[in-house]
Amino acid sequence: MLEECTIRDHIIENYSGECYGYIGDSDNAIKHILRSLSLMNDYIDALDNLKSIGGSLTGAIEIGDYTWAKFRSQ
């Protein structure tokens, strides 16, 4: 998977977090997404993914903003 990449830039960290989010491993998802943001603090995809993880953990959803429900199980 993405763990085998030798270059760990903000994009790889974000995609790793996104993969963990989709399989329901929110702890690792948060770890990788926060690492992505520490490398580039204005990376909008990582900010959206962090919002999505929060939405999946709290059950919160913002109508009109699909990112809140991205990692929600159906």
Automatic annotation (TrEMBL):
Domain of life: Bacteria
UniProt protein name: Uncharacterized protein
UniProt lineage: Bacteria, Bacillati, Bacillota, Bacilli, Bacillales
